[in-house]
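Tutorial, part two.
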Amino acid sequence: MIIGIPSVIITSKDITISEKGYSIGWNDIEGMDLSISTGRSTSYTLVIQLKDPWKYISQKWNPIIRYYCWFAKDYFYKPFTVDLNNVEGDSQDVFLMIEGYYRRYKKNAY
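Running the prediction step on this input gives:
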């Protein structure tokens, strides 16, 4: 939870990433992965691949941020990610729940 707002909201229609300000329809998602980084602590990140990233990047009102998101998306900045450490509960269980919604509500998933 980020300042009293849920980090992720999932419904039968879409997934909302509050931190980034996106609501992504299940049918716009091409796939998703769980990225695990280890070090001093373990970090879990949900990475969402979209069929048409520009559809969501173009919604950014600031042209500099919009350009940065588009330019850097293939290199080091992933605009469609969720830090699952900010979500209450076990990060792997949260990923499995989100993936379950994706499989259930996306037409022809996997």
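DSSP finds three helices and six strands in the chain. In part three we will examine how such features are distributed along the chain.
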